[in-house]
Amino acid sequence: MFVMGAYVGIYYNVVVAWSFYYVYSSFTVMPSVPWSSCDNEWNTVECADGITRNITDGKQTSPSQEFF
Fold first, then answer.
1. Against a cut of 0.85, is the pTM above it?
2. How many angstroms separate the CA atoms of 10 and 25, rounded?
3. What backbone phi and psi angles, to 5 degrees, belong to 47?
4. CA–CA separation, 4 and 6 (whole Å)
5. How far is CA 17 from the centre of its chain?
6. Contact of 54 with 38, CB cutoff 8 Å
7. Which end of the chain is more exposed for a tag (fewer CB within 10 A), N or C?
8. How many whole angstroms separate alpha carbon 19 and alpha carbon 51?
9. What does the radius of gyration of the chain's CA atoms come to, in whole angstroms?
């Protein structure tokens, strides 16, 4: 019971830590969060951010879908 409680506690703390990290990242002095535009090196040609439309064969993904 102690081991399972420790695993659940670690898992919970990791989820909370990632949440705090992303909230902090969205409020820092960065001009925008990296998943808000298609101007990054990991984006594909199907990326459409609402400002620029890259229509290749009808498939479009958002920048946040490609980031995560």
1. no
2. 22
3. -70, 130
4. 5
5. 15
6. yes
7. N
8. 28
9. 17
